[in-house]
């Protein structure tokens, strides 16, 4: 049995060195989100039970820590958009498979240079580090996303991974390729900006611009759930449970479809769909329709209980100057009438995960409690 080492370290070369050292010794690593308050860090450590922790105070052995299996490489806390984060166990083989498939799809060479600026506690940021380590690519690490720093390093770096809100704050032409994940990508984007689909459970993006990466199989179940079978899939969750069935298919909890030529279209999370008058409404589709009215992070579409319709479509926003008429006119340009929001709720903020996913359940809970 091998150690699970929690790295409570800022994104830095030291993080990379400690990760590399742990792997050399056959141990696994649990990155701790540096933006978490102390109590949240304690809860995460208690939940995932690492055997050791490395921080600015040095290395400490933790009482009651649980080791990992031989061959495990990473334990990654899920983003938690639908509940308490789980620990996803990724093996050395799955991490290597992800690095190889991504590098092949991007035609990465030794002349390329990755720029890392996303949180390392999430696979979108962590996979930049692991790809660079495993494929021998040059790497520059930033402690956080800063548009000015991105601009400065764009003269030497060729590859970067971002979320949509960050993309809007840089000049994408400065990079050879930009991987975009975390939340719904903008419909109009430069050709070098590659929309990805993946989960913590797949170690990073496994579909680029609708096309599965090398070795990735996609299947749509009878109830429209996206199923994934690939060498990148996790071994299990930290508690031993799994969302992978006996045939090797990972049940993603996402709803989608495949076109005749094999392109994957992701519609959203199973729990996010709004059923109003027996019609299904996808919040992301309505958000895309009305996006021109808002700045990023200013709004979200959710469903609230309704005695007549079962659920009603509503908009939560920090803006006070948007009317239902404006929203209705835009929605009806691309969507049927039943997708039109019935109400607008003014909120202080739109809660999101660290990688930009809207916490719809949190908004629903707050609005239901106050209305």
TrEMBL record:
Pfam family, one: AMP-binding
Biological process terms in GO annotation: fatty acid metabolic process
Domain AMP-dependent synthetase/ligase positions: 67-237
Keyword Ligase in annotation: yes
PROSITE patterns given in the database record: AMP_BINDING (PS00455)
Xref: InterPro entries: AMP-bd_C, AMP-bd_C_sf, AMP-binding_CS, AMP-dep_synth/lig_dom, ANL_N_sf
Domain AMP-binding enzyme C-terminal: from-to ranges: 286-357
UniProtKB keywords: Ligase
Keyword Disulfide bond among record annotations: no
Family: Belongs to the ATP-dependent AMP-binding enzyme family.
Protein name per Swiss-Prot or TrEMBL: Unannotated protein
Organism: freshwater metagenome
Lineage: unclassified sequences, metagenomes, ecological metagenomes
């Amino acid at each position: 049995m091998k150690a699970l080492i929690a790295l409570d370290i800022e994104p830095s070369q030291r993080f990379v060195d400690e990760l590399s050292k742990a792997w050399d010794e056959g141990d696994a690593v649990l990155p701790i989100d540096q933006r978490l308050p102390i109590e949240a860090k304690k809860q995460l450590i208690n939940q995932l039970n690492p055997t050791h922790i490395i921080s600015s105070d040095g290395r400490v052995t933790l009482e009651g820590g649980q080791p990992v299996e031989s061959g495990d490489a990473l334990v990654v806390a899920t983003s938690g958009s639908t509940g308490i984060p789980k620990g996803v166990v990724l093996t050395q083989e799955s991490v290597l498979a992800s690095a190889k498939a991504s590098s092949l799809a991007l035609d990465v060479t030794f002349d390329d240079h990755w720029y890392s600026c996303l949180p390392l506690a999430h696979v979108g940021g962590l996979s930049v580090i692991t790809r660079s380590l495993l494929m021998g690519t040059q790497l520059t690490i930033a402690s956080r996303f800063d548009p000015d720093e991105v601009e400065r390093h764009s003269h030497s770096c060729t590859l970067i991974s971002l979320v949509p809100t960050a993309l809007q704050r840089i000049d994408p032409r400065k990079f050879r390729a930009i991987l975009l994940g975390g939340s719904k990508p903008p419909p109009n984007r430069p050709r070098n900006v590659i929309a990805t689909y993946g989960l913590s459970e797949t170690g990073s993006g496994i579909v680029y611009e609708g096309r599965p990466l090398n070795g990735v199989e996609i299947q749509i179940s009878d109830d429209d759930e996206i199923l994934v079978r690939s060498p990148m899939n996790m071994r299990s969750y930290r508690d031993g449970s799994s969302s992978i069935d006996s045939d090797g298919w990972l049940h993603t909890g996402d709803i989608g479809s495949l076109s005749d030529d094999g392109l994957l279209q992701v519609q959203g999370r199973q729990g996010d769909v709004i059923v109003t008058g027996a019609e299904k409404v996808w919040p992301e589709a309505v958000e895309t329709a009305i996006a021109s009215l808002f700045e990023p992070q200013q709004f979200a579409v959710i469903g609230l209980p309704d005695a007549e319709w079962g659920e009603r479509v509503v908009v939560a926003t920090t803006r006070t100057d948007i009317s239902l008429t404006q929203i209705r006119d835009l929605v009806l340009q691309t969507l049927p009438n039943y997708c039109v929001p019935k109400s607008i709720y003014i909120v202080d903020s739109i809660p999101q995960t660290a990688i930009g996913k809207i916490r719809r359940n949190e908004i629903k809970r707050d609005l239901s409690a106050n209305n």
